[in-house]
Amino acid sequence: MDATQTIGIMAQLTTIKTFTYPHEAYVIRGKLESEGIRTFLKDEMTVQVYNFYSNAVGGVKLQVFAEDADKALDILDNVEKPSREVAVFCKKEIEDTLACPFCRSENISRMKKPNWLTLIPFLIVGFIFPVYRSSYICFECGKHWILKK
């Protein structure tokens, strides 16, 4: 490939999203390439070698060919809108707590987040007594839920 072909290809590329670090771009890049869209990462190696240059070079740029830009942006819109609604169930309502109550899949995970009550013992005694709030997520349907006693 000579210099004129390289310049022609670079002129056809469109930046559709920028990231601070390369590892953030890999997931989106994989999704676009699985949909048949060729992608390129500009300034990936510069930021990978010198992390602090990310802001100076404008981050890692995810680029696609100009004719694929609209399709790629549509895919990104669908990927980046996770549902943040959390359903609340009583343990009595659900007979199987090891399966998703929506799709019955067993591909779930329990997430533990510290509750604001964790700070009270820290302020009084000086050490943290962890109080966690548990929630669940299903990897099949993407729903979140909490179990109350």
Describe the structure in brief:
The chain is an alpha+beta fold. The chain is built from six helices and seven strands.
Structural features:
149 residues, alpha+beta, 2 domains, 4-stranded mixed sheet, 6 helices
SSE blueprint and pairings:
Blueprint: H1 3-12, E1 13-19, H2 22-34, E2 39-42, H3 44-49, H4 54-57, E3 60-65, H5 69-79, E4 86-90, E5 108-114, H6 119-124, E6 132-138, E7 144-148
Parallel strand pairs: 4-7
Antiparallel strand pairs: 1-3, 2-3, 5-6, 6-7
Detailed description of the structure:
The protein has 149 residues and is of the alpha+beta class. It folds into two domains: 3-79, no CATH class; 86-148, no CATH class. Helix content is 34%, strand content 28%. It has six helices and seven strands; from the N terminus they run H-E-H-E-H-H-E-H-E-E-H-E-E. The chain has helices at 3-12, 22-34, 44-49, 54-57, 69-79, 119-124; strands spanning 13-19, 39-42, 60-65, 86-90, 108-114, 132-138, 144-148. Strand 6 (132-138) and strand 7 (144-148) form a beta hairpin. The longest helix is centred in the N-terminal third of the chain and has 13 residues, at 22-34. The protein starts with a helix and ends with a strand. The relative contact order is 0.14.
Name the poorly predicted regions.
none
| Secondary structure: helix percent | 25-40%
Total E-strand runs: 7
Question: Quick one: biggest sheet?
Answer: 4 strands, mixed
Mean pLDDT across every amino acid position: 81
- The Rg value, from CA coordinates, equals 22 Å
Label the overall shape.
flat
Oligomer type? single chain
- Number of continuous helical runs: 6
First and last CA, distance: 66 Å
Q: Any idea how many domains? A: 2
Q: Approximately how much beta-strand content do the residues carry?
A: 25-35%
Question: Structural class of the helices, strands and pairings?
Answer: alpha+beta
Query: Which strand order does the major sheet show?
Result: 4-7-6-5
Q: Could you give the order of the helices and strands?
A: HEHEHHEHEEHEE
